[in-house]
Recover the amino acids of this structure.
């Protein structure tokens, strides 16, 4: 068997992007076993030397070249990394700068990029998070008019994590509201939601998966039983269809996929680019 | 003045990564004005044709080439996009596949990558989000032993968004606990935190910025006054220093930077790669 291959994600900032992108490349090589190390905030000569040492140590220990996914804006640090680290260097930044300079007809600033206005983003996100936390799980119907989207669906179908993700990642004020057996027996939407029908977005889920999720919470309960989950999902889907509310099945989707699909389908304005 | 330049982020998945990476490149060209369009979930021929049409329409309208940041795993769709769209094509995926295949000595699967196990991630994240919401702002001290990290600091210094980000993005169970004037007058940590000192991580903030944030919430209050913010921050910092709690200044940092720095400094285990 091949020994594990070390992979380093090296960035002058958080490294989150480099990791995501690098990992999506690595999923193309499922038969290889990787050891992953993230080295964020590589900004000084001293950080750089540490990183190079770690990478070169892996070469010795594993008798093969590590993979380095790199995102460093500073030219000197970038060059030195390329020269001194013995690795397959995959650079997510530098190779794109020259074509951009040529096409745009201007020189790049070569400044370690900070994403736009930290201040503006921060206020907007804080405000969205406050709103979303306050309007989680139908906790209040006050100020629902301030919501940009209101997610509805049965308990545990993914409303809370999706709302929080929309707020945190995109600054979107996302409320969420459970559909309960009461709503199903009356065959209509909760009264408090009626003025905001145009903002409603439904989430649904495979009953088997829902039951599995609910079992984690309340094992053996009627609430978690497959029978009950089937019935709740069927009633919720019928209600949402009758009310012509756009609906998304969350079953096999990650939180990122659910959130992005909602933004796309509901044409929500994202507050950060 | 140059007309605005259209930028397209084209992905077969959510497009979030392509946007972040593309935007960090664009920050290098501050004098150019960009119009940004994200085209996520480009998976079929039909989606592809729509995307190509939009891009080529921009060429006509703006009389200049758009920039396209691309991440498409499927070879055919990728090729056709490159052939038929008249744009500067910056591909975050394909150029890295060949070097990886060569270095690893295996062929890539060319399958649209899904990040590992959606199921595992989902449970872990849900569980972390539940925990974090339950332990927001010191709401309960029950099960605090289950926290992987406990953020402390004065009200509005960034504890809540950071905790939620740690939970959502990395599946880390992050509690947070406010430091209040009561704690400052007793010159000690809240009793309920004492058993978990080794899990504490302090956040601090510039008093001017804190006052600005609090004014957004309660304008004109004593709570938001610069005078009071100065005193609270000074007392909190003194307390955390005396108790030898690692501390991070959040003032000029984004939520991502704060979260990643904490993971790094507190050596937290991240649950997703």
């Amino acid at each position: 068997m091949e020994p594990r291959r070390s992979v380093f994600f090296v960035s002058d900032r958080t490294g989150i992007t480099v990791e995501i992108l690098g990992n999506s490349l690595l999923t193309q090589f499922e038969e290889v076993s990787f050891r992953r190390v993230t080295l964020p905030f590589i900004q000084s000569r001293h950080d750089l030397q540490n990183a190079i040492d770690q990478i070169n140590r892996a070469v010795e220990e594993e008798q093969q070249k590590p993979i380095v996914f790199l995102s460093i804006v500073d030219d000197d640090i970038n060059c030195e990394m390329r020269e001194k680290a013995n690795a397959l260097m995959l650079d997510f930044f530098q190779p794109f700068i020259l074509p951009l300079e040529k096409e745009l007809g201007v020189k790049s600033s070569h400044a370690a990029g900070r994403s736009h206005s930290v201040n503006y983003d921060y206020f907007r996100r804080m405000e969205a998070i406050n709103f979303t936390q306050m309007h989680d799980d139908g906790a209040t119907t006050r100020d629902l008019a301030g919501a940009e989207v209101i997610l509805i669906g049965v308990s545990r179908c993914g409303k809370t994590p999706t709302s929080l993700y929309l707020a945190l990642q995109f600054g979107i004020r996302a409320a969420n509201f459970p559909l309960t057996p009461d709503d199903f027996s009356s065959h209509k939407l909760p009264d408090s939601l009626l003025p905001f029908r145009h903002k409603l977005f439904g989430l649904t889920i495979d009953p088997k998966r829902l039951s599995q999720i609910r079992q984690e919470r309340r094992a053996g309960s009627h609430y978690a039983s497959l029978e009950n989950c089937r019935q709740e999902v069927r009633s919720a889907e019928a209600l949402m269809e009758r009310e012509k509310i756009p609906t998304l099945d969350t079953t096999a989707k990650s939180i990122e996929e659910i959130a992005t699909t909602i933004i796309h389908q509901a044409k929500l304005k994202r507050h950060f680019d």
